[in-house]
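Input/output pair, single chain:
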Amino acid sequence: MKTKEFLFKYITLAAASLSILFLMGIILSIFKEGLPLFNDINFSDFIFGRKWHPTDEPADLGIFPLISGSIFVTLGALLVGVPLGVGSAIYLSEIASTNVREALKPFIEILAGIPSVIYGLFGMAVLAPLVRKLFNVPTGLNLFSASIILGIMIIPIISSLSEDALSAVSKELREASLALGANRIETIFKVVLPAASSGVISSIILGFGRAIGETMVVLMVSGGAAMLPKSIFSPVRPMTSAIASEMGEAVNGSQHFQALYGIAIVLFLITFLSSLLMQWFAGRENRE
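Output:
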């Protein structure tokens, strides 16, 4: 028995150590390839420059349009995903009967298992033509369409984690609220939801990280124009889309190649900060 426990301990330790090593390797490789760029270009010019023409001579390597594309698409996705995700979590946790919950929850979870390329195909074949026809715009492959598809993609993440947070609120709080004369809706929005706010906010931050890091959908549906959007129907090129579409044609070691890794560094820092925020909110919930 002691031998089995010894082996189990060190096998799991090795698995955890390898995970950390893989993560550190990825981080080091990104910074190793991307940091040399800033020997030739100022970091603020890279972040706030408004022109992305990496193949010109001299190259314009301002990624502000790409950052703006990522931020606007992600915020649009949150406008779609947060109400639907939190709303479905409230319904499943607080309103639906057991039979209805067991029937509906698998359908929400199925959304999480659909490959992103399928969402992209749906966006290109169904949503984009519909948007172009309804709003009479030149192209349906734009910020609006990408936001809707990404919003649908993050619903399962927000819904599942929010439902867990709502279900963790003690039954006594609900009963006390109802005993004091509050109705069901008041109990949900004034007692249960505030008590579960840390978990709900954590789910939204995780949804933000999922949306801003998504590649295939924005590559297929956002339009691919590296410019600042003038409206919600403008085509955009988010950071992930730029990396995926241009890495294959960038010469290894060139300034263009380094700039794409520089974009990866910026994207990594954004997702890292969102993860820290999520951990902070989760820790606050545990402290409370």
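DSSP finds twelve helices and two strands in the chain. The mean pLDDT is 90.
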